[in-house]
Specification:
The structure holds 2 protein chains of 2 kinds.
Chain A lengths: L4 H29 L2 H22 L5 H24 L2 H13 L4 H15 L6 H11 L5 H7 L4 H17 L12 H20 L10 H17 L4 H14 L2 H4 L19 H16 L7 H14 L8 H14 L3 H15 L1 H10 L7 H13 L3 H12 L5 H6 L3
Chain B lengths: L2 E8 L10 H13 L4 E6 L7 E5 L6 E5 L8 E9 L3 H8 L4 H4 E7 L5
Antiparallel strand pairs in B: 1-5, 1-6, 2-5, 3-4
The chains are: A mainly alpha, B alpha+beta.
Chain lengths: ~400, ~110
Amino acid sequence: MSPDPSEAEARRALTTLVRESGRDVLATLVHVTGDLALAEDAVQDAVLRALEVWPRQGVPANPVAWIRLTARRRAIDLVRREAARSGKEQRSMEHPVDGLDEEPSPSMVEDDLLRLVFTCCHPSLAPATQVALTLRVLGGLTTAEVARALLVSEASMAKRLTRARQKIKAAHIPYRVPPDHELPDRWSAVLATAYLMFNEGYAATSGPRLVREELVDESVRLTRLLVRLQPDDAGALGLLALELLQDSRRDARVDADGRLVLLADQDRSRWDARLVGEAVPLVGEGLRRTPARPDRYVVQAAIAACHALAPSYELTDWAALVSWYDVLLTIDPGPVARLNRAAAVAERDGADAGLALVDEIEGLEEYALWHASRGALLRRLGRDDEAAAAEEAAAGLPMNDPQRLLLGA
Amino acid sequence: MPLYATIIYSQDVDWSAPEHAGDTAEYSEFSQSAAAIIRGGAALYPTSTATTVRVEAKGGAPISTDGPYAETKEVLTGFFLLECADLDEAVAAAARIPAAWNGAVEVRPVLPLM
């Protein structure tokens, strides 16, 4: 039943190429027609056609041009049909036909992609909808694939995406890069959506698998696009570095039985050195671009890099980690960052020092890992009764199944 | 350009009462500064003056009840119709309506009727 690996790989490469080209064509088509749903339909048809024709006839010399032409014909068809239905023939007809005749330059395509990013991550759409729409529109996933990646039924995903498209159209959510005074906030919202997507794949909040690889791959791909579109932005560089560093531990993080393996117990030879090698210079680049005020993703990536570069858990530079956490707390004084800092302090200064800090943190009573951290530190201090109570509290809170297995619950 | 209804939810107030003169002044300020995009609007009397109407079936006799459709802390107290280029512009305008800081403003695109 399973195809041989080289063929599977070839098919995957083809799918990526098709999707990549499809995304570029879509961005232009949305810009020209101003109609996301119509552009999506046209590109979807062209992509399906490519996946059908290319394996038989070979990949065309210029795959993007092939998809653009096919999608354009389809778009014109759809516009005609729509126009005939609504009787607004004259006006809507000229539009797409004109704009699609010329081959857009790469920088025009990038501008269109950036506009589309801001539309998909518009704050008037719920975060979960932004993630789904981004996967569909910029990731080029089919509705069924988006549904699978986000663990919802295809029917409800189709409904959610349809509502989102309807809102974009009816409420006139613009396709444009926000003006300068709004840009920083809107760009952070884009990065937050990309990171939400990554986390949903990397540490699923529920469900049977700890890592949903396809979602992780998609979000890294999206973040690469964001870096390409805003190459001077420290946040995008930091986010890409952070994702690559976390992802470099993918194989070591879960054992053969699907159990989560703690950082201290991971087989570091299974970390992906290639990803670490790509990410570490990005951290440096990100730091150089934010001399005045550090960026949260860059700092989080620096923390991940400290771990990635340590030869063993014991030889980790805990003092450097505590310092990075101190920097992080100046940007994000939230309880989760404090919990992570406390864990680093426990390694640097001992379990009692760490526990004192963990106990000071308020607002994590509903967070399983806070109780689990307390439990682990109490165990190290030989306070087994209190440790058992903390572990029990952790077990009663929401976790994904591998986390639950790790905590023995 | 598209039309948006910016629907104002706030504490139930009697705009006509003298103690709310300050509030209405704030609204006049908005109305003047946004005159170029305002296409209509109204302030509503308090919900104590509302009558909710239903009929058993189309053409049936009205069944009236005293008060608003839903009993909530923040109620519909007025609306503006705004003509804006897109949602971003409508949201920016809605943020200047006093209810944005004294309640909430719901921005809804208006369905064009022929």
